[in-house]
Specification:
Elements (H helix, E strand, L loop, with lengths): L10 H19 L6 H10 L2 H23 L5 H24 L2 H24 L13 H21 L3 H10 L4 H25 L5 H24 L5 H20 L2
Helix pairs in contact: 1-2, 1-3, 1-9, 2-3, 2-5, 2-10, 3-8, 3-9, 4-6, 4-8, 5-7, 5-10, 6-7, 7-8
Length: about 260
């Protein structure tokens, strides 16, 4: 990674990154998956490969804040069921990043954003057909967990975009709001921390990128507190519509030459 490019950021670009970091914190304590907008902003301002390395530590900061907030509501049997498949997806994503150059990663992030938007829309349309919570212990439930786990691991490694995949899985498993937030908080903290050596080995994280993270992390914290305050007050339907529109715009922008 050409880390020098991280220092050629205009005040306007830094403001965009700061707003995206604020949204990272908000998404971790309020609306999981909303940070796909942050992903689009980071990939637009920074080189695509570099953006994934800069964003990962900020996601971990948000994960820690979410765990502190919702630690009592995690469902560990679901987490243990997902982790093996997610690990396989992370390995596949790492191999992809070894092969892919910046242009391919940029296009892949854009395509991933559009794919995640499609999954979110499908989830909303099929919500009334979701399984009962105990369906995840059946054979079909295990197959579903493995499928979502591999896709979630791959998308989170390549583009830090596993949120919508896991959101869809947890909702289909019948989780209520607090159980959803607590389980996803521990899930992404463990998965994102496990990605650190892979990202560092690929050259996506180094001293200079971490210094940029330090400057941006201060914006994650207030975002998390805003999310905690808003989670019981937010108009979920309107917010999801705004996220979907912003994600589509970001994904199309990344796919353009």
């Amino acid at each position: 990674m050409n880390t020098m490019t991280l220092w050629h950021i205009s005040p306007g670009e830094f403001a965009a990154l700061a707003a995206a970091a604020l949204l990272v914190g908000f998404s971790k304590t309020a609306v999981s998956g909303a940070n796909t907008v942050s992903l689009a902003v980071f990939a637009a301002v920074l080189p695509a490969r570099a953006s994934t390395g800069v964003l990962l530590p900020l996601l971990i900061v948000g994960d820690v804040l979410a765990v502190v907030t919702y630690r009592r509501h995690a469902h560990w049997p679901t987490l243990w069921r997902l982790f093996p498949a997610v690990a396989a997806g992370v390995v596949l994503g790492t191999l992809f990043l070894v092969w892919a150059d910046d242009a391919v990663v940029r296009a892949s992030i854009g395509a991933t954003l559009l794919l995640m938007t499609g999954i979110t829309l499908w989830r909303r349309r099929a919500a009334v057909q979701d399984d009962e919570p105990d369906a995840v212990v059946t054979r079909a439930g295990r197959v579903k967990a493995r499928s979502y786990g591999v896709l979630g691991g791959f998308t989170t490694m390549v583009a830090n975009a596993g949120g919508p995949v896991m959101s869809m899985y947890l909702l289909s498993a019948g989780f209520r709001k607090l159980g959803f937030l607590g389980t996803s908080a521990f899930f992404f903290l463990i998965v994102n921390v496990s990605k650190l050596p892979f990202s560092a080995g690929l050259g996506l994280i180094d001293g200079r990128s971490l210094l940029l993270d330090v400057a941006l992390a201060v914006f994650v914290v207030p975002g998390a507190f805003i999310g905690k305050w808003a989670v019981k007050r937010i108009n979920q339907l309107l917010f999801e519509r705004l996220v979907i529109v912003a994600t589509v715009v970001g994904g199309v922008q990344l796919l353009l030459p």
